[in-house]
Amino acid sequence: MVPQAGIFPSELTALRSAGLLIGLAIVAYTLARRRSLRNADVLILLLAGLGLILVTGTEAVDGLLSAFSFEKGNGGRILGLAVFAIFILFLMILRALSQASRNSRQLSAALEGLAWEEFRQAGNPERFRGKIAILVPAYNEAENIGQVLDQMPADVCGLATATLVLDDGSRDGTGDVAVAHGATVARHVTNRGGGAALRTGYRLMVDSGAEIVVTLDADGQHLPAEMERLVKPVLDGEVDVAHGSRVLGHADRNHFARELGIVFFNRLVSFITRTHVTDCSNGYRAVRTTVLPQLVLRQEQFHTSEFMIEAIKRGIPAKEIPITVEQRLHGHSKKPAVFRYGVGFANAIFRTWLR
Ligand SMILES: Nc1nc2c(ncn2[C@@H]2O[C@H](COP(=O)(O)OP(=O)(O)O)[C@@H](O)[C@H]2O)c(=O)[nH]1
Ligand SMILES: [Mg+2]
Prior knowledge:
Helix content is about 50%, strand content about 15%. By secondary structure, the protein is an alpha/beta fold. Strands 1, 2, 3, 4, 5, 6, 7 and 8 form an eight-stranded mixed β-sheet that branches. Strand 3, helix 6 and strand 4 (about 185-190) form a beta-alpha-beta unit. The protein starts with 13 loop residues before the first helix and ends with a helix. Bound molecules: guanosine-5'-diphosphate and magnesium ion. Guanosine-5'-diphosphate (GDP) binds near residues 141, 191, 193 and 283. Magnesium ion binds next to loops.
């Protein structure tokens, strides 16, 4: 290549040569594979390859760089290019993140829609109209759920109950056991997480016209006998949400790290919401069905604090009620190990607070 002042560099350094080769390779690869790539990817790859050729094989961007005070010499040019490259990468990461969250929301919506269709076609909504709906999210709880369902009260505070088990893609026959023990079952065809299971359950209960929804776990940690404590203040019109609290009530001992986490997260939620919260990691609660559509619920897994913060943000009248949390009957918690649990929990709190 004959250097031409102004457009081509006077000397093709090793770095420039490497960049030029990579740029050419990217363009060649993209052209060769263009039929099997998405048009958007062809465009992005071509832009990246041609961009690399432009900055390594020519001086065309030097004017732009010096306009931003990245002068040639002493690595100034390469620093300028790196700054621009980081900015472009940042934009691409943002795009990828927003695409991932859109995909995730669409998947949840599809699972929810399928569950509702199946539920409606089976004529199940009628079973819940005007009743207290007991909603039990369950993932691989076949050895626990029967015992839990057998304890469900037929009515609470004089109002009839009906139980919906939201089988979250279980592979151990949880749904069949639940049906055998008298529950109505709706299901996610694949596992999505306790939060997603509850969201689908809420949607089904809102559309069925249930009066109050009570949620409790399928593993026997929450006691159906204590349901009246949660339902009464809602039914009496005192509040719209009654959250169970193991701190006000009683809890069997947990992992040390998880206990510490619970104390920390209760403080954190109290601080950011400027209220006093004693137990933000509890899934036993009663809610008036009509307030559910006001809540923006997005968490697939770490839903307990999201529900609580959302209710506070929307100014929904609520109170905490002492309840007991026992050890699960059989098996192990399906939640991730301590570190990932902590990160997931913190992430849920901040995301809910920020939006
Ligand atoms: N962890 C988890 N629980 C789920 C899922 N789907 C539904 N659940 C139900 O959510 C409830 C709480 O889950 P568990 O693993 O006991 O969490 P922990 O009590 O916080 O340790 C149980 O009734 C689960 O069966 C899921 O994908 N993951
Ligand atoms: Mg549990």
